[in-house]
Amino acid sequence: MGDFFERIVDLEVTAEEAGPLAERMVDWMVAEGVITREMSGDAMYSLSVDEGHVPGPNWARATGNPADLGWWPGPVAVVVGRDSHVGGQGMAEAEYAVCPRCETRTVVIDYPERFEADRAVWQPFGDGITAWKETGEGSAPCATCGASVPVTEWEWDTNFVLGALAFDFWGWPPLSAEFQAEFGHRLGHRTEEQMGKF
Hints:
The chain is α+β, with helices and mostly antiparallel strands. It is built from three helices and eleven strands; from the N terminus they run βαβββββαββββαβ. It has a four-stranded antiparallel beta sheet with strand order 4-10-1-11. The longest helix has 17 residues, at 15-31. The termini are close together. The model has no long low-confidence stretch (mean pLDDT 92).
């Protein structure tokens, strides 16, 4: 058992722009009836926020399917601030990272042999991510080509995303491709979607 979420992460917004952009996105979803301004922490487990927006009367517009009378989704959490977003319960590290300079894949968690990160391999990435969270700038060296690459430019596995603005839809049916496209258009930046379980 567990609670599932679908997340949309803005990959390009700055920490300074994230708050005002989050407000505009909430205004749009409220106007569409997808969410309300009422807040609740029920059935919501985002790590950095305690409450999310309660679904609105037209929440099913986001899924592209008629509302199922037996299904009522949970809140939508708006997560503002530079952070790493993970898709799995208990996860904290990426499975791998690909250098954008030389395209070498650095394996951090060697599935199925290991289910935990190699601490020595993850250390430079973790240090760079910590610096980025605190200052907006952080990098990690590539062990193959030697380039020092900003952590926001590394290509991570799909269960690990860096961004300063994320929207967690808790307990919703899958969001439609149309809604995701409109969401990304309104954000005005590249996005990445995650699905996960807590």
